[in-house]
Write a structure and sequence with these properties.
This protein is mostly helical and 535 residues long. The chain has three domains: 395 residues, MFS general substrate transporter like domains (Growth Hormone, Chain: A, Up-down Bundle), CATH 1.20.1250; 55 residues; 52 residues, no CATH class. 77% of the residues lie in helices and 0% in strands. The protein is built from 21 helices and no strands. Helix 8 packs antiparallel against helix 9 and helix 15 packs across helix 19. The protein is globular, with a radius of gyration of 25 Å. The N terminus is likely disordered.
Length: 535
């Protein structure tokens, strides 16, 4: 008898474990999710190689990332409904198979157009994995054990973005960019075999599916169109906004208006449907809404720092892509260590208190990064990521666990879909916010520091004289030394501007961490000894 079965009064009616240990099932269904989340970041460092290999510009190559995220967001939002209609196990295996085949096609892509098409297909397959897995885990474990199960899932979701840049850099440098996608082939086949062999379609979930079909399946086509266009346009705005001057671009403005209209129209439409494609009523629950917002912030901090810290190290400290990725790796190791520890704590400590601890650690880790200096060391960068890596499990696991509290059994799939939408959209918002703050604060600091670099400024004159003498001592003639001195002052000023702007980015992320604390305080306490859903 498994641990989960021993939990008082727990029914196996909705468990996907069958006669197997549920922890084995948790590991099995995490394999493909790890592969999918890894793929959202692993291709980032290969963009220059992809652009060169396909003879396109860097700006054009970014559609390799954008196309995947848009397709992923669209399917993610409706994956709860699809999982209910098709069946969790069937839908999960369909997603894994689609993702695997699309990955192989990406590896053999012959042009940018073909690669973008295959990335869209890959995003459509990847979008439903996390939702199905979370729903399987939520129903296969009672609340007291659920935190430990989500710890296995959490390693996949939180650690994958951390090792993605390092692994992607190593693969690209050692082999070719094609292998960034081809490595998904064997992993996908292993996942399909294990899921097909070990995971069971729960009798309770199967009965709900048959009942739904007996009533006559009413497909919410309008809701699907609204969410697809709304989230797809929003993802495009977030990914391309900074590159195109945000609302100064007619294209970005048009997509923003389309997204706003569709998402606003979605609210009254879905609330008046008997079979909505997205269960927006869940967001009307205090507990679930708070969890949704905290997960939004968690995704923003996790994904934005995964993108902005390597960018800082490569652009300002001249790290290679692989070394910059390695600076993130210690944080991933500490996250893996902390996941099972926090998983146990979730079963005995109220989630809201753990979330407060996590939000505080995240806030302090971002505050630590505001002490950036031009002579930043590898250790400083690595420790900042370690602090964040310790804090993230205190956010991710309790939020995931608390979000299912009070959710009816037949809404588990929908709840899982919305929480994953929060993580993905939060990540996109975080990256867009970080890049926007960076660009705008660079302009601000540039205008302020340039005021002190005027030829009439005594300090500026003294610096130029000192550097001119320095370059003359290095063997330059008077004319060249003067030019070198001016260039040196310009470079030093620009470097200071950049570091000040990065510091402002980390202050912004620290504020996001702080805002998660009051959200945790409004959550209610949950019954940690309650049986799993199935009653």
């Amino acid at each position: 008898m498994t641990d989960a079965t021993q939990a008082g009064g727990w029914s196996a009616e909705r468990s996907a474990a069958g006669g197997h240990n549920p922890y084995l099932i948790a590991f099995v269904v995490s394999i493909a999710t790890f592969m999918e989340v890894l793929d959202t970041t692993i291709a980032n460092v290969a963009l220059r190689h992809i652009a060169g290999g396909l003879a396109v510009g860097i700006d054009e190559s970014t559609y390799v990332i954008t196309s995947y995220l848009v397709a992923n967001a669209i399917v993610l939002s409706i994956s709860g409904w699809l999982s209910t209609v098709i069946g969790r196990k069937r839908f999960y295996m369909m997603c894994v198979a689609t993702f695997t085949v699309a990955s192989l096609l990406c590896g053999f892509a012959w042009s940018l157009e073909s690669l973008v098409l295959f990335r869209i297909l890959q995003g459509l397959g990847g979008g439903g994995m996390a939702t199905s897995e979370q729903a399987i885990l939520a129903d296969s474990f009672p609340p007291a054990k659920r935190g430990q199960a989500f710890a296995i899932y959490g390693i996949a979701v939180v650690v994958a973005p951390v090792i993605g840049p390092t692994l992607g850099g190593w693969i690209t440098d050692t082999y070719t960019w094609h292998w960034v996608f081809l490595i998904n082939g064997p992993m996908g086949l292993i996942s399909l075999f294990l899921v097909g062999t070990l995971v069971k379609e729960p009798s309770g979930a199967e009965e709900e599916r048959r009942e739904l079909l007996r009533k006559g399946l009413r497909v919410d086509y309008v809701g699907f169109v609204l969410v697809a266009i709304g989230l797809g346009s929003l993802e495009f705005v977030l990914d391309e906004g900074q590159r195109n001057d945000w609302f100064g671009s007619n294209m970005i403005l048009a997509f923003a208006l389309i997204s706003g209209f569709c998402l606003l129209a979605l609210i009254p439409w879905e609330l008046t449907r008997n079979d909505p494609i997205i269960e927006l009523r869940l967001l009307g629950r205090r507990q679930f809404a708070a969890c949704f917002l905290v997960m939004l912030g968690t995704g923003a901090v996790l994904i934005s720092t995964t993108q902005i810290l390597p960018q800082l190290l490569q652009a300002e400290v001249n790290y290679t892509a692989m070394l910059a990725g390695l600076a993130l790796s210690p944080g991933g190791i500490f996250t893996m260590i902390m996941m099972p520890i926090v998983g146990r704590l979730v079963g005995i400590v109220q989630p809201k208190y753990l979330i407060i601890v996590g939000a505080t650690i995240v806030m302090l880790s971002m505050w630590h990064l505001t002490g950036l200096t031009p002579d930043i060391t590898y250790g400083y960068a690595a420790w900042s990521r370690i602090f964040l890596g310790i804090g993230l499990p205190f956010l991710f696991l309790p939020v995931t666990t608390a979000s299912y509290d009070g959710v009816p059994p037949d809404k588990t799939n929908q709840a899982s879909a919305l929480i994953n939408v929060a993580r993905n959209i939060g990540g996109s918002m975080g990256v867009a916010l970080a890049q926007t703050v960076l660009a705008q604060r660079q302009q601000f600091h540039q205008s302020r520091l340039v005021e002190h670099a005027a030829p009439s400024d005594i300090g500026y004159q003294q610096t130029i004289d000192a550097m001119t003498r320095y370059f003359q001592a290095q063997g330059s003639n008077a004319s060249d030394a003067a030019s070198q001195a001016i260039a040196w002052v310009g470079q030093t000023l620009q470097r200071q501007v950049d570091f000040l702007a990065y510091i402002d980015v980390f202050w912004t992320l620290a504020v996001i961490g702080a805002l998660m604390i009051p959200l945790a305080l409004i959550m209610r306490s949950i019954d940690l000894k309650a049986p799993a859903r199935g009653h």
